[in-house]
Design a protein that fits this description.
The chain has an eight-stranded parallel β-barrel, surrounded by six helices. The protein is built from nine helices and nine strands. The relative contact order is 0.15. It is globular, with a radius of gyration of 17 Å. Helix content is about 30%, strand content about 20%. The structure holds SN-glycerol-3-phosphate and calcium ion. SN-glycerol-3-phosphate (G3P) binds next to strand 2.
């Protein structure tokens, strides 16, 4: 791929889930480095806002599962969060740090987890694109919170969005088209030929999370999906 752009969307996209969290502590710089080393075309990460307003990269809204801290991320200052161990001595990274570290080596899927993340994420992407070396297609912004995603799309019409869903919606991919999404990001247990075909018919890509078993990776390829989120990018890389 040309460094500053999204990888070729016509080929099967390998997306490193929370980096390469099958090998390294999830959502840490070490995990993103590992994903790139293992051939991921894109890295996926989760974003929350902390009490002092910074965007931090962590999956849960609480700290217990992935760090040695406790309580809600949204109630902690950045200094409090930075003092924690996010696994193997890694720190909870700022979104800005991950974007800088990944650079043009892989595209970035930013999942809006926390409330109020749409605006600041848009600002960060625009600053990054503005500073050169990137195209807006370097980024894909997604969320299960379709209202937050719609807010993002309202603020920023240039950056592609992925509509996350767990389950099969009554209208198949219609909800994602309504959001103006570039992609449907669907859960593995709910992928059907009909759902994939409907997304494609509506002009969208179809990405599937989280696909770790080699049999499922092969099955997804055969079904014609456009890419997968995986904890083990090496299993899906050619
Ligand atoms: O974006 C795909 C996947 O990350 C969504 O689920 O819970 O791992 O954030 P989760
Ligand atoms: Ca995620």
């Amino acid at each position: 791929m040309k460094g500053s752009e999204m990888p070729n969307m016509d080929s099967f996209l390998v997306i490193g889930h929370r980096g390469a969290c099958g090998y390294e502590p999830e959502n840490t710089l070490r995990s993103f480095e590992k994903a790139i080393a293992l051939g991921a075309h894109m890295v996926e990460l989760d974003v929350h806002r902390c009490r002092t307003g910074e965007l931090v990269v962590i999956h849960d809204n609480r700290l217990e599962r992935t760090t040695n801290g406790s309580g809600y991320v949204a109630e902690k200052t950045l200094d409090e969060l930075r003092a924690l161990d996010a696994g193997g001595g890694e720190r909870i990274p700022l979104l800005r740090e991950v974007v800088e570290r990944v650079g043009v080596r892989a595209a970035i899927n930013i999942e809006l987890k926390g409330a109020g993340t749409a605006g600041p994420v848009s600002e960060l992407i625009e600053r990054t694109v503005g500073s050169g070396g990137y195209d807006t297609s370097h980024f894909l912004v997604s969320s299960f919170d379709h209202r937050e995603l719609a807010r993002f799309a309202e603020i920023n019409r240039r950056v592609r969005i992925g509509a996350l869903v767990e389950g099969v919606p009554l209208g198949l991919a219609a909800f994602a088209q309504e959001l103006g999404a570039f992609a449907v990001n669907a859960g593995l247990d709910f992928v059907t030929d009909e759902f994939v075909a409907d997304a494609h018919r509506r002009g969208m890509r179809f990405f599937v999370y989280t696909v770790n078993h080699p049999e499922d990776i092969d099955r997804m390829r055969r079904m014609g999906v456009d890419g997968i989120f995986t904890n083990y990018p090496d299993r899906a890389s050619p």
